[in-house]
Amino acid sequence: MPKSSLGPTPKSITGGCLCGSVRYKITYPDDHDFDSSNYLCQCTQCRKQTGGLFLVSQQVPVSALEWTSGTETLKEYAASESGRRGFCGECGSVLFWRSVAGRTISPTIGSVDPLYLFGEGAGARFGGGEDVPAEGFGRVLCSGTYVEWCANEIKGVTDDIPLLFRGKRLQGNAED
């Protein structure tokens, strides 16, 4: 059973894009370590792609992710020689980042269904939920184990957000 020091962990989660044309399910391996798989990134590429100050994602084995809808609108952008950014070509939702050479994929936490992030009856819309605690799994899914590209902090803005100081702070990315 996957474990975390931050509370209960999901066996699986679902998510997808804003328009609903791309849907996925992640089934966590029994040995998944939630405490060391969360990433917050402040790089310029993540900011430009999301329109936000940072991107929150969780790294999982590629084999843990299953597309549960058609993938006709799923697009990838080669942001660099080593990385690909997945998004819906219809609505523009950012869905993941993945290394070309890696066996992992990092789905964005913002694309996770509300049921798993904050619970509170969101199950009526997304189904299931019998194993979801009332408060959801948001805390364990976005704990900020690694905060990447801290060299790109915005003075007076992202250098003062408590979430960005929870984990290991890296000037580059976790592979550096």
UniProtKB/TrEMBL annotation:
What GO annotations for molecular function exist for this entry? carbon-sulfur lyase activity; metal ion binding
Instruction: Please report the stretch or stretches of sequence annotated as the CENP-V/GFA domain.
Output: 13-133
SUPFAM superfamilies on file: Mss4-like
User: Which Pfam families did the record assign?
Assistant: GFA
What keywords would UniProt list here? Answer: Lyase, Metal-binding, Zinc
In terms of PROSITE patterns, this protein maps to:
CENP_V_GFA (PS51891)
Database matches in PANTHER family: CENP-V_GFA DOMAIN-CONTAINING PROTEIN-RELATED, GFA DOMAIN-CONTAINING PROTEIN
The UniProt entry's sequence similarity note says: Belongs to the Gfa family.
Name of the protein this chain belongs to: Glutathione-dependent formaldehyde-activating GFA
